[in-house]
Every structure is written in C-alpha cells, then in structure tokens.
C-alpha cells in the first residue's frame, strides 16, 4: 500500500473528515467500487465513510440512487446530469455530508462519436450544492478507471476542504467570545 498513488489523497480526506466531523459516501458506475475500495484501504475510514453504491446498470441507478428515468433517457448514463443525480441520490440514501459519483466509458468498447472511450463525469454533492467535472481520459480500461478514481478523490477532497471551511466559519461565528 505504500506505493498506492491515491493514499496521500485519502489520508488527507480522512484527516479533514475526522477533524470536521464530515461523513462521505460514493456512487460509482465505471469505476466499479474502486473509489470506495481505495478509501477503505486506509485504517480508520469507518469513522467517516458510510458506504458506497456500485450502480453499474441503469436499473441500479434508478432503484438504488433515485436517478430519474427521464434523465437517463434524455442524456444517457454517461452525462453531467446523471453524475449530478447519482451524487445527490447517494447523499440522500446514505445520509452523508458529501457524496461523490463517477460515471463514464472505461473502454475499450462502449464508446461512440458523441461519447468516446475515456469520457467521464465526476460529481460531488454537499450541503451547498453539486459540482460536476468532465474528463476525457486516453488510457486503456484500467488506466481510465484509475484516473477517474483519482479525479473523484481530488474533487471530493476539494469539496471537503470547502465544506469544512464553511462549517468552521459558521461554528466560530456562533461561538460566544
């Protein structure tokens, strides 16, 4: 695990979550649980990590994450709209402060002109809203999954830092001097 490239991100995420009392969940499609697995590879994750939902099939997105069928029909599973809905659904279903989602085309098949192999959307939902980012990876299946997991952890860490700043500012403002 010493050579795990995600470990530094996860250790920082864990430190922030523990310090600020934040909880986290994942909703994954193309990464197949890689983000949740990486988080749980670090001892102590059970204090802040509530769980993950691997919703690979559209039916799982509908039933487990409450992604509206209309979004899937209109935009497809690999879209900013579905990534947003997955993150919101995971946040609600698992009752957490922050939820990250990943949906994309890992490859080598499954791509199209409109949605090529490597196209990935990552979203994080928190109390302030949802942020979605789009990526176009150029690797093979495993490289695309690894890059997507890293991007998910980086966005989650960024939102965790922002959420903690807001929480800390609010709690300091409410503390009598």
Walk me through the topology:
Blueprint: H1 7-20, E1 24-28, H2 34-40, E2 49-54, H3 58-65, H4 69-75, H5 80-94, E3 98-104, E4 119-126, E5 129-136, H6 141-174
Parallel strand pairs: 1-2, 1-3
Antiparallel strand pairs: 3-4, 4-5
Model description:
The structure is a single chain. By secondary structure, this protein is of the alpha/beta class. It has one domain: CinA-like (Maf protein). It has helices at residues 7-20, 34-40, 58-65, 69-75, 80-94, 141-174, and strands at 24-28, 49-54, 98-104, 119-126, 129-136. The protein has a 5-stranded mixed sheet, sandwiched between helices. α2 links the parallel β1 (24-28) and β2. The longest helix is centred in the last third of the chain and has 34 residues, at 141-174. The protein is globular, with a radius of gyration of 16 Å. Residues 166-177 have low confidence and may be disordered.
Q: What is the rounded Rg?
A: 16 Å
Report strand order across the widest sheet. Answer: 2-1-3-4-5
Unreliable stretches covering 5 or more consecutive residues: 166-177
Helix content: 40-55%
Name of the CATH first level: Alpha Beta
């Amino acid at each position: 695990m010493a050579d795990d490239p995600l470990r530094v991100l996860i250790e920082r995420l864990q430190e922030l979550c523990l310090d600020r009392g934040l909880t986290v969940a994942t909703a994954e499609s193309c990464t197949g649980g890689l983000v949740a697995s990486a988080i749980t590879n670090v001892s102590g994750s059970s204090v802040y990590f509530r769980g993950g939902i691997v919703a690979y099939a559209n039916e799982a997105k509908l039933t487990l994450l409450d992604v509206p069928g209309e979004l899937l029909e209109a935009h497809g599973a690999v879209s900013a709209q579905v990534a947003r809905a997955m993150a919101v659904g995971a946040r609600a279903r698992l009752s957490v402060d922050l939820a990250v989602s990943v949906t994309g085309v890992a490859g080598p098949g499954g791509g199209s002109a409109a949605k090529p192999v490597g196209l990935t959307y990552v979203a994080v939902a928190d109390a302030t809203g949802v942020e979605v980012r789009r990526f176009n990876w150029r690797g093979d299946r495993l490289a695309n999954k690894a890059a997507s997991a890293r991007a998910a952890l980086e966005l989650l860490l960024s939102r965790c830092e922002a959420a903690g700043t807001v929480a800390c500012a609010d709690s300091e403002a409410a503390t009598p001097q």
